[in-house]
């Protein structure tokens, strides 16, 4: 019997800014959480299954009723990403372990969804940083350097 191949999912998210109240710009990076005016949220997410050409996406704009009521409500986005990521055998993203996956997990917790199952992760930022010596490890730079976009 032939064994099914693993399903690799390439993904990325975009988040909002986090508005904060400060008295002045300074060299002090610390901002007390009491000064957070609004929590950031996930504006959109995109994904591509390995071997496919179609890029899929979800956005807060995809649920017009929810968006009209509260344009910062990312529940529809999170529910969609939860379903998609849960169906992958492996995830691939740039700086995804440190940012994308952790922030998606945070919003999943906030919206009261079950945690994602354990999923293998391939973080291209980690690979670029630990295995190579690019002038910059930013995805755009690495892609241009390698001639892939």
Overall 3D shape: globular
Strand order in the sheet with the most strands: 3-2-1-4-5
Secondary structure tally: strands: 5
> SSE order, as H and E?
EEEHHEHEHH
The radius of gyration is: 18 Å
Uncertain spans: none
> Helical residue percent?
25-40%
Q: How would you sum up this structure, described in words?
A:
- The chain has 149 residues and is an alpha/beta fold.
- Helix content is 33%, strand content 19%.
- It has 5 helices and 5 strands, in the order E-E-E-H-H-E-H-E-H-H.
- The protein has helices at residues 64-69, 75-86, 96-110, 124-131, 139-146; strands at 8-15, 42-49, 56-59, 90-93, 120-123.
- Strands 3-2-1-4-5 form a 5-stranded mixed β-sheet.
- Helix 3 links the parallel strand 4 (90-93) and strand 5.
- The longest helix is centred in the last third of the chain and has 15 residues, at 96-110.
- The chain is globular, with a radius of gyration of 18 Å.
- The N and C termini lie far apart (39 Å).
Quick tags:
149 residues; 5-stranded mixed sheet; alpha/beta; single chain
Write the layout of secondary structure elements.
Elements: E1 8-15, E2 42-49, E3 56-59, H1 64-69, H2 75-86, E4 90-93, H3 96-110, E5 120-123, H4 124-131, H5 139-146
Parallel strand pairs: 1-4, 4-5
Antiparallel strand pairs: 1-2, 2-3
